[in-house]
Structures are given as structure tokens and as C-alpha cells.
Write a structure and sequence with these properties.
With 221 residues, the chain is of the alpha/beta class. Helices cover 49% and strands 16% of the residues. The chain is built from ten helices and seven strands. It has a five-stranded parallel β-sheet, with helices on both faces. Strands 6-7 form a two-stranded antiparallel sheet.
Length: 221
């Protein structure tokens, strides 16, 4: 038996066809190069815009969409994009690969209809394993915990917030600053700031970017 025939027989009957969407070319190149080296993967496209991804999907050429979450150059971004992708391509496994912290984005991605979430700092072998898991068990949601891929349902963090904290976050979601929120609610700036910091701590949000992501999903107008 020739080496070529051995190689062909060792490959899966159906390779997992993957389309990558990422507007950062270095990240896309690194992930694509790694995935190409696996016999059970077939990289069908690496694109930088939502429209280009949907062209690939409409041709029925992929089983998995490995997508970024923040796409500031596109008209669709974050959870809105994931929801649209889920509605227009129900059979496809959606794996979100994002620079956002898992604590900030997992629940949002799960609610939007994704099959998995991984941070961009995740080792490449775990990204590959997450893709396989999402395809093998499409009804589950996969995350990475302590360098292991696990099926897990992220719990909404807002359940821990007090009524005062939710009220203040609702005003901040409208675009008001701490000072403006304090004036509208007729409370001291210190009180509003304290509630904001308390809410961020409960939500495990480290900075205003993480808070903005949460607010965008929780308080959509």
C-alpha cells in the first residue's frame, strides 16, 4: 500500500468544513494555518466581512462558522450578528472566537444562538477541540475551563443585581454618565458610582468595555 493511499484511508469520510470570519488578518491567518494541518478539517474560506461569510454559507460550503464577536466595520455586530446567522443558517455550528473575556460574552453568545465561545488567547489545540465538540453535539454549548472543553450553560449574571443597581445600569445604557444619572435620579454622584462599581463586581466585569457589552444585550432599545 502506497503512503498516499494510507493517508487517504486515514482521513474521515466527511471533513468538517470551516469558514472563518475575523477582521484581524493576523489572527485569521494563524488560526487558518493551524486548522489546515488537521486531516478532519477543511478550511473553505477566511473572510473579513459578514456579507462575504453569507456568500459562503449560501453556497452550502461549510459546517462551522468560526466568527469574531466584535465587527466594528460591519453593520452587524455582536449578538445581533450571531442571531442573524443562527436564523439564516440553522444547521451550521457557530463558534465565537473573541477578544472579549469569557465572563463578559459567554452568556450573550449562548442566548444569541451560538454553539460555543472561546477567547482568542485560547491555545489552538483547544480551539480545534471546541470546533469538533460543537459539531458532534449541536444542542450543547461549549466553553473552555481550566484548559478543558466543557459543555455548560452560562447563567445570567443580572440575577444577582439589586433593584437600585439595575435602575442605574438602565440609565447608563441610555448613554448617560454617572453625573447625569445622579442628576436624573436626584442622588449623589458617589451613591451612583458605588452602585455602578457594585454591579460591575457582581457581573464580573472588569472595565467599561465589558459593561457596555452587557448593557447592549440586557437593555436593547
Amino acid at each position: 500500500m502506497t503512503p498516499r493511499r494510507v493517508l487517504l484511508l486515514s482521513r474521515p469520510r466527511h471533513r468538517i468544513r470551516i469558514a472563518i470570519l475575523d477582521d484581524h488578518p493576523i489572527v485569521a491567518l494563524g488560526v487558518a494555518t493551524y486548522l489546515r494541518d488537521h486531516a478532519d478539517f477543511e478550511l473553505v474560506a477566511s473572510v473579513s466581512s459578514v456579507d462575504d461569510l453569507f456568500v459562503v454559507i449560501e453556497r452550502g460550503e461549510c459546517d462551522v462558522a468560526l466568527v469574531d464577536f466584535y465587527l466594528p466595520g460591519d453593520r452587524y455586530d455582536g449578538a445581533t450578528f450571531v442571531r442573524r446567522l443562527r436564523v439564516e443558517a440553522p444547521p451550521i455550528a457557530i463558534v465565537v472566537l473573541s477578544a472579549a473575556r469569557a465572563a463578559d460574552a459567554e452568556c450573550v453568545c449562548h442566548r444569541a444562538g451560538a454553539n460555543a465561545f472561546v477567547e482568542k488567547t485560547t491555545p489552538l489545540p483547544l480551539i480545534a477541540e471546541t470546533i469538533r465538540s460543537a459539531v458532534a453535539a449541536p444542542r450543547k454549548f461549549f466553553v473552555v475551563r481550566e484548559r478543558k472543553v466543557e459543555a455548560r450553560v452560562p447563567h445570567p449574571r443580572e440575577d444577582m443585581l439589586s433593584a437600585s443597581e439595575i435602575e442605574i445600569l438602565r440609565h447608563i445604557a441610555e448613554g448617560l454618565s454617572v453625573t447625569q444619572t445622579a442628576a436624573r435620579l436626584m442622588r449623589s454622584k458617589k451613591t451612583v458610582s458605588t452602585h455602578k462599581r457594585s454591579a460591575m463586581r457582581k457581573l464580573r466585569v472588569a472595565d467599561d468595555l465589558g459593561l457596555a457589552l452587557f448593557l447592549k444585550e440586557k437593555f436593547r432599545y
